[in-house]
Amino acid sequence: MTAIALPRLQTPAHAGSLRASLRLFWYGGRISYTALFNWARPSIYIPTLIGAPTFQILFFATLGNYATGLDPAYFAIGNSVQVSAMSGIYGMTMAIANERWFGTLHAVLATPANRAALFGGRFVPFIANGLIVSIYGFTISWIFLGVRIAPGSLGVVALGLVVTVFSCSAIGALQGSLSLRLRDGLFGANMLVFVFLLFCGVNIPLETLPGWMQAIGNALPFTHGLQAVRQAIGGAGLGEVGGLIAIELGIGVAYALAAFALFRRLETSSRRNATLDVR
Amino acid sequence: MNGARGSLRLVWTVWVFTMKAFMASEFFLLTAVLQPVIFASIAFFLFRIGGDAAGEHTLLYAALGTGMMGVWSTTLFGAGGAIAWQRWEGTLELLVAAPRRYDLVLAGQTLGASTFGFYSVIATLAWGMVLFGMPLRASFPVLLPVALLAAIIALGAMGMLIATSFVLYRHANALSNLLEYPVWIVTGLVVPLATLPAWIGPISWLLAPTWGMEAIRGATIGSAPPWLPIVLCMVLAVVYWLLARVVLVYVLNKARRDATLSLA
Hints:
Chain A is elongated. In chain A, helix 2 packs across helix 7 and helix 3 (about 70-80) packs antiparallel against helix 7 (about 125-145). Chain A is built from twelve helices and no strands. Chain A has helices spanning about 20-35, 40-70, 70-80, 85-100, 105-110, 115-120, 125-145, 155-180, 185-200, 210-220, 225-235, 240-275. Chain B is elongated, with a radius of gyration of 19 Å. Classes of the chains: A mainly alpha, B mainly alpha.
């Protein structure tokens, strides 16, 4: 009997080590984007994340201007920020829920990988993608709808936008975690996108909504971030909008933590009840 | 005679089947009921801020417009995905190979989609009446069912053209995502065409939702009977149907020749 000489495999970093976690955070996030985000190919990405946001901005700018007489730029700004939800909500939902639909969830959860790194890494590409869509929206608004941002305000606007896109991705992650148990996760994602349009001051100034709708809007992502972006475009500095950005960040972190806690809880209960892949 | 009756029965059966299938779909519940209600709310609030920019019938105008937006979305997604779903479910080859004409199956499906879409109009009208105190009245109540039927037939025929055209594109849903908002704009569903750039006018004349909306609005808040838009709905339906037949024959022949019928 002869032993077969196997090539010596490179020793991987220990699953619990910081190096392994950072690697998982970075590469895992990238792979989740290319493998699980159904819209990552140009034939879907361009119509859905470039074409649809363009017409969404034009539609609400036209409707808002006709119905209220307000400047189309008001609606263009709101929708230029809101279109990032296409990536943040749908993308994060797919990045988590598609593990189940593509049959890879059990393999992922069988690894001893750090769950926080596994989960957190998925935010990065979708935040970047949301920013790209939103910046594109602002470009369209600048060309066609008269949105102007003073060069001195760019930094504050960018900060508000990054934080808003993060908090939107966080609620998308919560929807993704919920989708591990739901039959159709995209139903909730669709609802969230529409709810943002109505409750978060994207098209309707928040102060004109009934009190209970304002209360819901204040608990959702977008509302404070969008107010900060609007004020910054109007010339407000970090000192004036810093509080709004901090609240938006707090809301985003709260949703991200809730999403992670739910993910862990569903993982544990799915293992206990042998329902990991049950649809 | 037997053939015509059989064809009508086929269209009717597929129509009913499609309605039942959509009734059980969360996605179409969202498209035909929840989404229009949210858009109607946005429109009601915006028009309220502007002091009823569309005149004395502003709420009814907005409810009908946002309802029709839902009709378009349901037709677009329902018809756009019709052939793709048959591919995924493995029934396309069977339907094409069956002795009955495949375009009749498709007609039943797309008419089912446009009919189901009219839940949107009911939803936005009910929403407006219950939550925003919208008065419901019709200037020509006898013509209203005629206008609705004309709109359903025109949108169903347009859906058939969409279904046959989208089959050439692998990702029909992405095209549906793209075409939702632009048609809402150029057909003047919530913003009158008169306020939009003049070059949009000729485009809107070619689209069924423009005349469907004109017919329904004419029967509810119009000052003259909407005969012209009703007739134009039917004319467009015939044109769409003929175009869809030509495209369908070409696509099916090509798919059979290249052996790509079931390839998504």
